[in-house]
Amino acid sequence: MATFVFGTAFLIALTVLSLFFPEPKPFQYLVFRVILALAAAGFAAFIPGFIHVEIKPAIRAGGALAVFVVIYFFSPATIVSKRPEEKSHNDRSGIVAGIVVDQATNRGIGQATIVVAGRTEGYVTEDSGNFRIDFRSEVPERVRLHVNKPGFLPLDITVEPPAENLILPLRKQ
Predict the structure, then answer these.
(1) How many degrees, rounded to 5, is the angle at CA 81 between CA 161 and CA 55?
(2) Mean pLDDT of the region 29-47
(3) Could you tell me the residue range of the domain that residue 157 belongs to?
(4) What's the pLDDT tens digit per position in 84-120?
(5) At a CB cut-off of 8 Å and minimum separation 6, what does 49 contact?
(6) Cα–chain center distance at 86
(7) For a disulfide at 99, which of 23, 127, 129, 140, Cβ 3.0-4.6 Å?
(8) Inside any domain, residue 86
(9) Same structural domain for residues 36 and 59?
């Protein structure tokens, strides 16, 4: 009887948690999967009958442990939802980051301006030449950057987000 109560309590807890975390992170997904497998094993221990699972070469299990193995390794959550590691086009990162450098010396160029084509806002590199642009809401397929710094020739470049560790070289005039 205790295993049935245990399984029921975990299923209720998992249902409540799923309302608060509709898109779990990978670790949360793993915890939910373990809780679901434990809850199912608790139910299976209460139900008469026998099940046997063998996953060669390492796993042989029977009864409630077999139910745990089936639920854990064949994760039924993937049937109804995408795994957190799987990202759709809309979920992809919108980060464009890197460094603007002097082409001759390879040193970072601080206070260089970066303007994204089609947008009103501009960005300024740090003193080290590093920059980071985050397109939070709408991630475009391609981004055209106009990089400018007095004393250097301007640079126009098109990148596809996510694009990190970019090196944007400017040539002196």
Answers:
(1) 110
(2) 77
(3) 92-170
(4) 444 444 455 788 999 999 999 999 999 999 999 888 8
(5) none
(6) 8
(7) 129
(8) no
(9) yes
